[in-house]
Amino acid sequence: MTEYGRGAGSEPWHPEDPLYGDQGWGAQQAASGQAPYGGPEQQPQQPYYPQQPQDPYAPQPQYAEQQTQQGYAEQPQQGYPQQQYAEQYAAQPAQPQQFNGGWDSTGQQAAMPYAGQQPDPYNNGYAGEGNDLYGTPEAYPPPQPPGQRQAPTVPEVPEQGGEWDAEPQEENHPFFTGADDGEREDDEPRESRRSKGGGGGRDRRGKTKKKGKSGRACLVLAVIFAVGVGGVGYVGYDFYQKKFGAAPDYAGEGTSETVTVEIPTGAGGSEIGQLLKQAGVVKSIDAFVQAQNDDPKGKTIQAGAYTMKKGMSAANAVKLMLNPSSRNSLIIPEGKRNSWVYGEIDTRLGLPAGTTKDIALKKAGSMGLPDWAKGHKNVKDPLEGFLYPASYPVAKGMKPEDVLKKMVNRASSEYGKQDLAAEAKKLNLDGPWQLITVASLVQAEGKTHDDFRKMAEVVYNRLKPDNTQTNQKLQFDSAYNYLTGKSNIKIGLSEINSNQDPYNTYKWRGLTPGPIGNPGTEALAAALDPTKDGWMYFVATDGQHKTEFAKTLAEFNKLKEEFNAQSGQ
């Protein structure tokens, strides 16, 4: 039995039931004029017409017309008499109607008479205020006829066997599926995927996709693992080779082909090895560094140009570089004039005598001289004082101008370490050019470091305007020898007085037009920091290694007599 006693149940109400009023389950309706609930007979106002099957809850035109004729058009219909109100309904007259109740084959219920259409007792007796039991939000939906009923929607439950399906969920991340974000099928909601197709087909497709994606993920992991193992192996092998393996190296003393390699000042083992490798002398840098470390004298390799053989073992390369005969370096001693340097360059490069000097005089402006060293009058050699004393690579195949540029650059670098302009001003000199000139005179006349400082004081004292002993004349033999290109100790007075050259300090006051040689570091330092003891004179008493100084002319004459006695004059 369904709710309200009207649906198709297991067994209909019995027709003799006092509350029976539906009369729609195949039983005969009450006879004409008979009250279904025992009330007095009412004469029918309308003949009986068989009713067409219709929805009891849809608007019924015929039924509405009946209600109008009966006078109850505005009264709500109570089609489900309750037992507790049986007596009340029995006492009220009713209009008997004949209907074939129940559900026909079309699934619609025929309209049925109801005993004495009475107002709903729950409306408190107000006509026209009927309650729609199916119109409230919390009401159940109205029942449907049998022909239009649909099976209730039952939530789909995944099929389960006797045991729990322990298959892991499908991995959706692109890293494991191998698909781009735009190609992922997982972006579709899961419920919409379930609604497509049957369960069995869905399971089979899901498992197939799951197997394919799992395979791609495994392949990716395998590749990553292989790359990682290979990388670790390579790093380990490389580390072993660097730490324990022998470096590549040639064997033997090399081929007959030679090459000149220039090693710069301050170069270490790795830099030397790099230069040798680039020249084809050694096979690897590591081999040379190892050979240099193995040789007790390997760290004494000096800067310069070396004549090497190609294809040498690292050990033989180190041994040859330690042999002075392999060095093609020109060492310029302190105080040497440019004329000596030019001759050495010509000899080492295999050039005719005078070649380098001609290039120096013609291209002096492009050698890299500082601005304060240019444009001076009566200068015999613009590069004098700028071929800085040091070791320079000079080997066949090199150009004279390239060698000279290195020397000039070295001098400019050394001179630039101090503010020569400011220092010259302190010493009452006319710029750095005169300061280098003083240093060259000190270098030429002095013998030791102590001599250099005293010699510098002699120069500055003789240049003073109040010098009445020499009248601001230096009277240096070294300056006269420079202009003659000689190194004579004995110079006659007649020769000195007759020469009008600007470099003749016996003739002219002040400094020479320019440096007379290339001063070293100590001579320059002495020129910057002379003694202040009042030295005015000096004499090389032995002519070579010993210099004595005097403050007065009388002391000088005494020293001169000693010199003449030793020299046999």
TrEMBL record:
<keyword id="KW-1133">Transmembrane helix</keyword>
<feature type="compositionally biased region" description="Acidic residues">
    <location>
        <begin position="180"/>
        <end position="189"/>
    </location>
</feature>
<keyword id="KW-0812">Transmembrane</keyword>
<comment type="function">
    <text>Functions as a peptidoglycan terminase that cleaves nascent peptidoglycan strands endolytically to terminate their elongation.</text>
</comment>
<feature type="transmembrane region" description="Helical">
    <location>
        <begin position="217"/>
        <end position="237"/>
    </location>
</feature>
<dbReference type="InterPro" id="IPR003770">
    <property type="entry name" value="MLTG-like"/>
</dbReference>
<keyword id="KW-0472">Membrane</keyword>
<keyword id="KW-0961">Cell wall biogenesis/degradation</keyword>
<feature type="site" description="Important for catalytic activity">
    <location>
        <position position="445"/>
    </location>
</feature>
<keyword id="KW-1003">Cell membrane</keyword>
<feature type="region of interest" description="Disordered">
    <location>
        <begin position="1"/>
        <end position="211"/>
    </location>
</feature>
<protein>
    <recommendedName>
        <fullName>Endolytic murein transglycosylase</fullName>
        <ecNumber>4.2.2.29</ecNumber>
    </recommendedName>
</protein>
<feature type="compositionally biased region" description="Low complexity">
    <location>
        <begin position="21"/>
        <end position="98"/>
    </location>
</feature>
<feature type="compositionally biased region" description="Polar residues">
    <location>
        <begin position="99"/>
        <end position="109"/>
    </location>
</feature>
<comment type="similarity">
    <text>Belongs to the transglycosylase MltG family.</text>
</comment>
<dbReference type="Pfam" id="PF02618">
    <property type="entry name" value="YceG"/>
</dbReference>
<keyword id="KW-0456">Lyase</keyword>
